[in-house]
Design a protein that fits this description.
Elements (H helix, E strand, L loop, with lengths): L7 H6 L10 H5 L20 H27 L18 H15 L8 H10 L4 H17 L16 H12 L10 H16 L3 H17 L14 H24 L20 H16 L4 H7 L15 H12 L9 H25 L15 H15 L2 H5 L2 H6 L1
Length: 413
C-alpha cells in the first residue's frame, strides 16, 4: 500500500512524511521528498556510470603505455627482434664453443671425420640465429668432453668453464626453437649422433640407443642406405656422406652387439676413399678407412647370428664354413704397418681387430668342434686367452691418454 512507503529524507531525520504536495516536513528541513518516487527493484544495480568511465580510462592508459614500451624496445640499440636473438645460452660463449671444437679437431677428428670445425665456427660467428648449427656445435662439444673424460664431464658446475651437461641442456633448448624432427639434414643427423655418444659415455644406454636410431632414421631420409645416392663417389659431399654412413654402421654394430638389439643398416658397396694428396686429411682418413674395412667382417647375417634376436640359434644355416672362419682369423692376425698414424688411431684399430676376432671365435665355438690341441688357432679353445694377452700387450705400448679417447666402447670390449 502507498502508506507503507517512506520518504528517504524523512527516514533519515526520524520524522513522519505525510506525502503532501509539497511535503511540509521535507520542505521545512530543505530535503528532497521521495515519497512519490517509484520504488526500484531490490538487488545489485551494477557499477555506477562514473566507475565504468574510470575503468575504461585505466584500460586506455595501460594500452598506450604498452605501445610506448614496445616502440622504445624496437628502437633501442642492442635490442633485436625474436627472430634474431642470439641463440647461445647466457653461460656459454663463443670462446667456449671454439675451445672444445679445437679439442675435437686435434684429438677426435680422426675418429669421427665428419665435421669441418673451421666451417662450423664460421657459421657460429656469422649466423647467430642458425639454431641448427649451434645445436650441432653444442652436441659436438658435449660428446668431446664425455669421450675424452675431461673434468667438465663428471661435474654439474665448474669454475671458469662449461660442463658437458650444460652443453646438452643447450642442445635440447636450441632444438625446441625449430622443428628438428621434421628437418632431414646432415647437421640434424650428426647432432643426434653426437648426443648418442654423450649418453653412451654417461652410461644412459636407453637414451643412447634412441638417439642412434634417430640418427639412422635421418640417414634413411637422406637415402644413405642406397648406393646410387653416392654417385659420383669422388665428390666432396658424397665422400662426406659415405664417411657418415660408415660411422653410423660401426656405431650400430657396436651398440647392437653389446646390448643385444636388432640392426637396421646393411653395408653399402662404397668404402671411404683416402685423398691422393699428402695433406693431413690423408693420414687421418687412412686410419678411418682401415677401421671401416675391419667392420665389413661384421656383415648383417653374421652379426645377427651372434647376438641379434632375429638370428639367434640359426647361425648354422648361414653358410659359414670352417675354411672361411680360419681365413678370417688369419687375416685379422695380420697387422699392417700403421706407425705413421696417431697413437689413438693405432689403439682404435688394434683393439677393434681383437674384438672382432673374439666375436668370430664365439661363433666358431658354437658351430664347430674346438680343442686346446688344435693345429689351427682359429679352432683352439685357448684363443681367447691369446687375444687377451695380445690386447694387454697393445695397451702397454701406448699412453693412457690414447686409450682413454675411445670411451665406453673400449671398456665394453
Amino acid at each position: 500500500m502507498r502508506s507503507s512507503w517512506r520518504c528517504d529524507g524523512c527516514a533519515i531525520r526520524r520524522v513522519r512524511c505525510n506525502g503532501g504536495k509539497p511535503c511540509q516536513e521535507c520542505q521545512k528541513r530543505s530535503l528532497a521528498c521521495t515519497f512519490l518516487r517509484v520504488q526500484r527493484k531490490r538487488g545489485p544495480k551494477g557499477p555506477r556510470v562514473s566507475t565504468s568511465e574510470k575503468i575504461k580510462q585505466i584500460q586506455e592508459d595501460l594500452y598506450s603505455a604498452m605501445l610506448t614500451s614496445a616502440s622504445a624496445d624496437e628502437n633501442s640499440p642492442g635490442n633485436s627482434s625474436p627472430e634474431t636473438i642470439p641463440p647461445q645460452h647466457a653461460e656459454i660463449t663463443h670462446e667456449d664453443y671454439i675451445k672444445y671444437l679445437d679439442i675435437f679437431k686435434e684429438r677426435l677428428y680422426s675418429v669421427w671425420p665428419v665435421v669441418d670445425c673451421d666451417e662450423l665456427i664460421h657459421k657460429l660467428l656469422i649466423h647467430e640465429a642458425d639454431y641448427e648449427s649451434y645445436a650441432l656445435a653444442a652436441s659436438l662439444c658435449a660428446a668431446t668432453i664425455a669421450q675424452m673424460r675431461l673434468p667438465e664431464h663428471d661435474t654439474q658446475e665448474i669454475d671458469g668453464g662449461v660442463t658437458s651437461s650444460q652443453f646438452i641442456e643447450e642442445v635440447h633448448r636450441l632444438r625446441q626453437l625449430f622443428e628438428y624432427r621434421e628437418i632431414v639434414s646432415i647437421p640434424s643427423l650428426l647432432t643426434s649422433f653426437f648426443l648418442h655418444i654423450f649418453y653412451a659415455n654417461a652410461e644412459k644406454i636407453r637414451s643412447a640407443g634412441s638417439l642412434l636410431r634417430e640418427a639412422i632414421g635421418c640417414a634413411f631420409g637422406l637415402r644413405m642406405h642406397e648406393s646410387e645416392s653416392y654417385l659420383p663417389t669422388y665428390s666432396h659431399e658424397n665422400q662426406l656422406k659415405i664417411r657418415i654412413f660408415w660411422i653410423l654402421f660401426i656405431s650400430e654394430r657396436t651398440y647392437c652387439i653389446q646390448n643385444d638389439t636388432p640392426m637396421m643398416l646393411q653395408p653399402i658397396e662404397y668404402l671411404p676413399e683416402v685423398p691422393n694428396d699428402e695433406t693431413q686429411d690423408r693420414k687421418l682418413l687412412s686410419a678411418f678407412v682401415s677401421l671401416t674395412q675391419l667392420f665389413v667382417n661384421l656383415d648383417g647375417e653374421f652379426a645377427r647370428s651372434l647376438y641379434g634376436r632375429s638370428g639367434k640359434g640359426c647361425g648354422s644355416c648361414l653358410g659359414y664354413h670352417r675354411d672361411e672362419m680360419s681365413t678370417a682369423q688369419r687375416d685379422l692376425c695380420t697387422e699392417k704397418d700403421d706407425s705413421d698414424l696417431r697413437e689413438s688411431q693405432q689403439v682404435d684399430i688394434a683393439v677393434t681387430r681383437q674384438w672382432i676376432r673374439t666375436l668370430l671365435w664365439q661363433y666358431t665355438v658354437s658351430h664347430f668342434p674346438v680343442s686346446c690341441n688344435s693345429e689351427d688357432p682359429a679352432f683352439s679353445s685357448l684363443l681367447p686367452a691369446q687375444i687377451a694377452k695380445e690386447t694387454l700387450s697393445t695397451f702397454n705400448k701406448f699412453s693412457p691418454g690414447a686409450i682413454k679417447v675411445h670411451g665406453y666402447g673400449m671398456v665394453s670390449t
